[in-house]
Each structure stands twice: as C-alpha cells, then as structure tokens.
Amino acid sequence: MSLIVIACESCGSRFRLDSEKLNKPRNKVRCSRCKHVFYVEPPEEDGLIHIEISEEEGSFVPGAAPQQVGKAVAPETGARSSMTRKVLFGGVAALLVLIITLYFTLSSSILTSGVKKTVPKEPAQPTVTIMESLQAYYLENIHAGQLLVIEGEVLNESPKPVSFVLVEGKLFNSNDVVAQIQRCYLGNVLSRKEIANLKLTEIQDRMMNREGKNLKNVRIPPASKVPFMLVFHNLPEISSLSNYSVDVISSQFD
Fold first, then answer.
1. Cβ pair 66, 32 in contact under 8 A
2. Which of 61, 105, 148, 232 is the most exposed place for a label (fewest CB within 10 A)?
3. Of the segments 1-10, 89-98, 180-189, which one has the largest average pLDDT value?
4. E strand or H helix at 137, and its extent?
5. pTM value surpassing 0.70
C-alpha cells in the first residue's frame, strides 16, 4: 500500500492517505481537527511520498472525515532535561542538607565531649572546726593535785555526718615551746565535781571513749556542735605557761 502525507490548508495538521483512493482529478476531503474542507489532487507518479505504516498514524478516507495523523513530535529533550536538572538539584540539595546536619551534629557532639563537666567532689576528709568559745580553768583533784581543764565545742561543717572526732590540745611555755600534749574524743564531758574526785586513770579513760558519752561522737549531723573536754595533769610551773592551742587531728565520714 502506497501512502502519501497531506497537510490541512487551514490548521496545518498532517494526515496520511492511501494514494489509490485519490481516484479523481480533485478529491474533496475534510480535516478532522478543524473541519476545514479542501481539495487534494493525486500526485504525479514520481511525486508520491512513501512512508511506513505505524501505530501512531491512521488511514484517511476521501470524502469522509479524515483521521488526524499526529504531528511529528520531537523528543521532549528540553522537558526531560529540565526534569532531570530538577531531580539532580533536589538530590544535591538533600545531600547538602544531610551533610550540614551531620556536620553540626558531630561538631556539637565534639564540643560537648570536649567540655569537662564539673562535678562537685566530696572532700576526702570531713570539715570539722573548733569553735572560738574555748574556756580554760584550773581545778584541784584530790588524787593528782592541780589540773588544767579546757572546754569547748566542735562544729561539723561537712555535708555528711561524721564520727570519731579526736581533738588534741597543747600547752606552750614562755618560749613558745610545747610543754605538754593531751587528747580527747568529743562528747566526753565531766562535771567539776567528777574532775575533782575521780582518779586520774578514770578521767583519762572517760576522755578517750571513742564513741563519746551516750554516742555523742557518732553520726554527728552537718552543722551540729558537740562539746569536748581536755584535762591536763602533771603540770609544769604555772608561771612558765604562756598559751595553749586546740586542733582536730582526726575524724571520718559515717
């Protein structure tokens, strides 16, 4: 079958037509697109345009409504290229967002890990201090003679309870040399009558009761005060003594 391609005079739509059906000198045809009616003459033998039949083209019948042959459409390279660019741009943008997010996340993590968090450390040793309300006086003991008694209080300034606080007292002579040292645990306080009448060994035993009388030297709460008493015996000449000191030498967290 020999086909020719004709174009509508009005709208330019192109159609294919079987040349054998152009059996008149002038054949009347109608454009199926714009309905324009025009005439088509059979081409010369050497002017026939032969084309391959494709699914996209239909037949054209003279005198009837012609079937439109779709115009040859070039591949939509522009549209596809634009869409490809959009897809590529979207992918690149998403990749950049991901890279930026990872960068800031890692940077934040590095900065956070690089910052040393200051965690308050608990003191290795309890903080207990001697109060300024110290009192020193002499008493006569019936067994050991003259004694020097120093009374005071210790304050627990630690954030936790403390126990077994040991206090040390020193007597200094006029040359600021230590003349005598005495120790006691907190909470062991005697009355003046007891100090005057008890034997010296009994006084010392009571002063060195580690838990304190009635467990006053155990689990001392923070900000609490506990009394103490130092008893010095075998004193040197009173006139040779010039000063004294009292310090906490040991304690422990409960």
1. yes
2. 105
3. 180-189
4. strand 135-141
5. no
